[in-house]
Design brief:
With 334 residues, the protein is α+β, with helices and mostly antiparallel strands. Helices cover 35% and strands 25% of the residues. The protein is built from 10 helices and 17 strands. The structure holds adenosine monophosphate and magnesium ion.
């Protein structure tokens, strides 16, 4: 009899947990921004929210792609050698942000490397090792300091003819941020966005009734795995707990590359040499609340390797590096 009250409470609480269904889960996948994008959203209105988020990602892809005729970036690349080219406020802002990140990273991140990336063609059928002469000549057309930006008219000018910009490494982050904002505007309280292994989250993961009873809570934080660079996708070396509005972004040398005579040639370019970056690491993960900056910083962190732990740690929440021997190094001080 003494325990009847407690038994009743337990039965009552368990009953509530079992009656409450977790919010509906909706998922959508599309190939955009040169990568596979999967967004999972929970709760009422998730379908509409997903459709709107994907429309926005597609719009950003069409606007910022350096490889689509008619995109704002293609217009700039075609015409900015001949004089100032006026662009939209949105495109101007992201170019300005990219240049600011170039300054903050001592030039490690540089959107003017497109002519060099095209020469290597990594990730395309035309991938090859260019001659040193070709690289040196092409490097003369690169360098963010050769971009002239006119704030008042939102115009861009290339100080050296035949320069070209590629915002690929930052536009993905901008698209992730915009997608997250749109999901939130649609009332979504819980979502996970996966952009080719780069993740952003809203809120917490809703749990099934049984998991909820086990956890003593209706939700738990999302957990994001950091890929083992030597194993197939999904094999993780470390797990990170993602808090609300957090971006977990990885740049590595294990997805876009080709191998010749035992040497790996990958897609992140050392802006000083024009060759794929050699910094003794296999991947750099940046954890941050600023999606666009985070994507750019992960590229810079990959190029800088261990130096990034000092140089870039004040610009984000955490940097996690996986070196060539699969050792994990982090900027976290605790
Ligand atoms: P990610 O894999 O996200 O780091 O993106 C790298 C992409 O950015 C490449 O596909 C290139 O188009 C471009 N890229 C390569 N090297 C650099 C660099 N040093 N700074 C900025 N963008 C780069
Ligand atoms: Mg990146």
């Amino acid at each position: 009899m003494k325990y009847a009250k407690y038994i009743l409470i337990v039965v009552f609480v368990t009953g509530i947990f079992l009656c409450l269904k977790p919010p509906v889960k909706k998922q959508k996948t599309e190939y955009l921004l040169d990568t596979v994008i999967t967004v999972t959203a929970y709760g009422k209105g998730a379908n509409i929210a997903l459709d709107e988020a994907f429309s926005e990602i597609k719009r950003i892809d069409d606007t910022f792609s350096a490889y689509k005729d008619g995109s704002e970036i293609s217009k700039i690349n075609k015409n900015a050698s001949g004089g100032f080219v006026k662009t939209t406020e949105e495109v101007f802002s992201l170019i300005k942000k990219a240049v600011l990140i170039s300054e903050k990273t001592n030039g490690a991140f540089d959107i003017t490397l497109k002519p060099i990336s095209d020469l290597w063609g990594i990730g395309t059928e035309n991938a090859r090792i260019p001659d040193e002469d070709e690289i040196d000549k092409t490097l003369e057309k690169c360098g963010y300091k050769n971009l002239e930006l006119d704030e008042e008219t939102h115009s861009i000018f290339f100080k050296i003819p035949n320069m070209a910009i590629d915002l690929g490494a930052i536009a993905k982050g901008y698209a992730s941020s915009r997608a997250l904002d749109i999901l939130k505007e649609n009332g979504i309280k819980s979502a996970l966005l996966d952009l080719g292994g780069n993740v952003a989250v809203i809120g917490n993961l809703p749990l099934s009734p049984f998991e909820a009873i086990k956890n003593g809570s209706f939700t738990r934080p999302f957990k994001v795995g950091i890929q083992n660079p030597l194993e197939s996708r999904g094999n993780v070396l470390k797990t990170v707990t993602a808090s609300d509005n957090m971006f977990i972004i990885t740049s590595g040398n294990y997805e876009r590359y080709f191998e010749k005579d035992g040497i790996i040639y990958h897609h992140i370019i050392d802006p000083k040499t024009g060759y794929p970056a050699k910094s003794g690491i296999k991947s750099a993960t940046v954890i941050t609340k600023d999606g666009a900056e985070g994507y750019a910083l992960s590229t810079a962190a990959f190029f800088l390797g261990e130096k990034s732990l000092d140089l870039l740690s004040s610009l984000c929440e955490e940097i996690i590096l996986i070196d060539d021997n699969l050792n994990i190094k982090t900027s976290r001080k605790d």
